[in-house]
């Protein structure tokens, strides 16, 4: 009994894998941008003095964080279609992933906001900064800076989680792998290759976030450490 | 060339008959015993299955029952699986096979087939309201398939027809896509296509364009020409009088292909 690996039939389908990887990155990019925005607003909303807004944000975060991603995807994809709204698998996948990562981002961002010392905001008020200036320079950016590593790993997790959208026929990397292995019967080789591709994608994503951090947070660049 | 082929065939037939003379004919044995043993897989609905009262039912089961009744024989089912259908008749554990046995050249080397009595129809089915009669009408429409099935591979290779495929992980998800409205067309077996409307009356689907038909025939071990002849006559008669079509329609929800109904 020996294990015979033959990558040739799998490798010759490389354009398919490339398309799949591009689709995975595209899904992750859209979901991170929109989900990041949803999460940030939700974290602000949870701390709001308006009890309706705070309750709404809390309900959203708790619902999403306590249900499986696959169920959420099926709900959006088949649920919306049942009541007459038909969107492509790609847009539903991107939307469902954004809604999902939004809830997790909200919790991470809330931790960031709570870590801002009230005295820092009072000091900014004392210096007569406008409300917008305070929110941007004294609260938001330092908050993001504090939780930046957690955000990065959450976003990488999201990119990996996008693999389940193959269930609703989004043609991302895992869908391509499932197709290729059913075509070639070379399951082991296919999934080895796809695992390597995901590792590469993760590294690319991490590098991109590191570079973005260097641009966004000059203090970190100079001191090599967050605040 | 043609003559030598005919001669060879004659010689082969003579040889086969000579070999046969040594033992009794299977058809005679069956008639003498007053009982026919039919190999049927009872775990592949809707062709063969066990009903709520633990009795065998399904299109293949009713076909077998019809045959036994017409020939005035007692019927004995030999339970089988897909892989053991052919060995069952080769080793004389069963007389004939009625079990979604599709006619293939490989199988024809080891057993003989009767005339086809039914078909496995692979189709593109759409919502009844969708106007689609040919492949051209399907251009630009999203067709749901189960990933890696023969329908997936066949349609994927039809590059010139410009079809849009949405691949789902399994039949269940594909059917959900059809029921929920994500897909107005699916490529699958005719049986599944008609099942959609049964389960979800709001969205009835019907076969629109045929992909392939696999003939299903009765299998008999090699070298039983009298039995094959009698089976052929029986199949022909019951296709003509519509009984086989009625059985098929009862379980699969669609008619047999038009060219079979004669």
UniProtKB/TrEMBL annotation, chain B:
Transmembrane segments: none annotated. Keywords: Signal. The keyword Cytoplasm does not apply. SUPFAM superfamilies: Periplasmic binding protein-like II (SSF53850). Residues 1-18 form the signal peptide. This is Transporter substrate-binding domain-containing protein. Residues 35-255 form the Solute-binding protein family 3/N-terminal domain. It comes from the Bacteria.
């Amino acid at each position: 009994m020996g294990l015979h690996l033959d990558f040739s039939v799998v490798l010759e389908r490389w354009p398919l894998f490339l398309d799949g990887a591009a689709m995975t990155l595209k899904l992750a990019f859209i979901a991170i941008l929109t989900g990041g925005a949803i999460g940030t607003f939700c974290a602000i909303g949870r701390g709001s003095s308006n009890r309706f807004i705070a309750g709404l944000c809390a309900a959203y975060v708790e619902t999403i964080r306590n249900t499986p991603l696959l169920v959420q995807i099926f709900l959006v994809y088949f649920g919306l279609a049942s009541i007459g709204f038909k969107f492509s698998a790609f847009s539903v996948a991107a939307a469902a992933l954004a809604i999902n990562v939004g809830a997790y981002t909200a919790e991470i961002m809330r931790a960031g906001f709570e870590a801002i010392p009230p005295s820092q905001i009072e000091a900014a008020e004392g210096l007569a900064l406008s409300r917008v200036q305070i929110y941007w320079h004294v609260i938001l950016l330092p908050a993001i800076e504090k939780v930046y590593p957690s955000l990065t790993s959450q976003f990488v997790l999201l990119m990996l989680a996008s693999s389940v959208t193959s269930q609703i026929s989004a043609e991302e990397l895992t869908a391509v792998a499932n197709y290729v292995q059913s075509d070639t019967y070379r399951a082991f080789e296919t999934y080895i290759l796809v695992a390597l591709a995901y590792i590469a994608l993760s590294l690319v994503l991490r590098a991109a976030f590191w570079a973005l951090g260097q641009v966004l947070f000059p203090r970190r660049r100079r001191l090599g450490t967050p605040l | 060339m043609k003559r030598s082929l005919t001669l060879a065939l004659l010689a082969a037939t003579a040889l086969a008959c000579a070999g046969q003379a040594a033992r009794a004919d299977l058809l005679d044995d069956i008639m003498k015993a007053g009982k026919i043993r039919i190999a049927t897989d009872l775990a592949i609905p809707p062709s063969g299955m066990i009903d709520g009262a633990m009795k065998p039912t399904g299109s293949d089961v009713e076909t077998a029952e019809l045959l036994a009744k017409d020939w005035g024989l007692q019927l004995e089912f030999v339970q089988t699986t897909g892989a053991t259908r052919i060995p069952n008749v080769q080793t004389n554990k069963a007389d004939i096979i009625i079990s979604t046995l599709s006619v293939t050249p490989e199988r024809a080397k080891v057993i003989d087939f009767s005339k086809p009595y039914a078909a496995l129809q692979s189709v593109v089915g759409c919502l009844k309201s969708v106007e689609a009669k040919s492949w051209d009408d399907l251009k630009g429409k999203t067709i749901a398939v189960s990933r890696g099935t023969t329908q997936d591979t066949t349609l994927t290779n039809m590059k010139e027809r410009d079809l849009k495929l949405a691949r789902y992980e399994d039949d269940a998800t594909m059917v959900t896509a059809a029921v929920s409205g994500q897909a107005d067309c699916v490529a699958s077996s005719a049986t599944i296509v008609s099942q959609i409307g049964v389960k979800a009356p709001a969205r009835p689907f019907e076969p629109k364009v045929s992909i392939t038909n696999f003939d299903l025939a009765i299998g008999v071990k090699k070298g039983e020409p009298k039995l094959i002849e009698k089976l052929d006559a029986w199949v022909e008669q019951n296709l003509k009088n519509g009984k086989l079509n009625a059985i098929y329609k009862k379980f699969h929800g669609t008619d047999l292909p038009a060219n079979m109904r004669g």
